[in-house]
UniProtKB/TrEMBL annotation:
Biological role stated in the UniProt entry: Subunit of the V1 complex of vacuolar(H+)-ATPase (V-ATPase), a multisubunit enzyme composed of a peripheral complex (V1) that hydrolyzes ATP and a membrane integral complex (V0) that translocates protons. V-ATPase is responsible for acidifying and maintaining the pH of intracellular compartments and in some cell types, is targeted to the plasma membrane, where it is responsible for acidifying the extracellular environment.
Coiled-coil intervals, chain numbering: 32-82
Protein name: V-type proton ATPase subunit G
Superkingdom of source: Eukaryota
GO CC, any one term: vacuolar proton-transporting V-type ATPase, V1 domain
InterPro entries, alphabetized: V-ATPase_G
Keyword Glycosyltransferase: no
SUBUNIT field: V-ATPase is a heteromultimeric enzyme made up of two complexes: the ATP-hydrolytic V1 complex and the proton translocation V0 complex.
Keyword Coiled coil: yes
Length: 137
């Protein structure tokens, strides 16, 4: 009877131990699933944070580009304003010179116009035909 009792005791003790091990294993699995969920949440938050940072960086870069473009346009307008006045002065001087030359040509035409017309009439009406050397030979 002792052997039966000790054997039953061993089976009960062993069964309780297995039950405790199974319970611990199940608890470990549940803890692992919970840890996986936590990890997925952390990864998702990190992705969202990264995406937001990329959007912020892109909009900041666009703003800097726009500011730089505006600055360069202002510099160009200032440069153009400073240097275009010189072109306007040069253009006005060139117009004056052209007007003076045109006036000189008109005066020369008035002074020598009659003589030029007389020379043109004389040359076109006073034709002296000359045979070419090939025809003479």
């Amino acid at each position: 009877m002792v052997s039966r009792l000790s054997r039953n005791w061993w089976l009960v003790a062993n069964g309780e131990q297995q039950s405790a091990q199974n319970s611990a294993g199940i608890q470990t699995l549940l803890d692992n699933r919970q840890a996986e969920r936590e990890a997925q949440k952390i990864v998702q938050k990190a992705r969202e944070y990264r995406t937001q940072r990329i959007r912020d960086a892109k909009s900041e870069a666009q703003k800097e580009i726009e500011e730089y473009r505006n600055q360069k346009e202002e510099e160009y307008k200032k440069f153009e304003g400073e240097h275009s006045s010189g072109y306007k002065v040069s253009e006005a001087e060139a117009d004056k010179e052209a007007e003076v030359k045109l006036q000189e040509i008109k005066e020369a035409g008035k002074e020598k116009g009659d003589k030029v017309i007389a020379d043109l009439i004389r040359v076109t009406t006073d034709v002296k035909p000359v045979a070419s050397e090939k025809i003479k030979a």
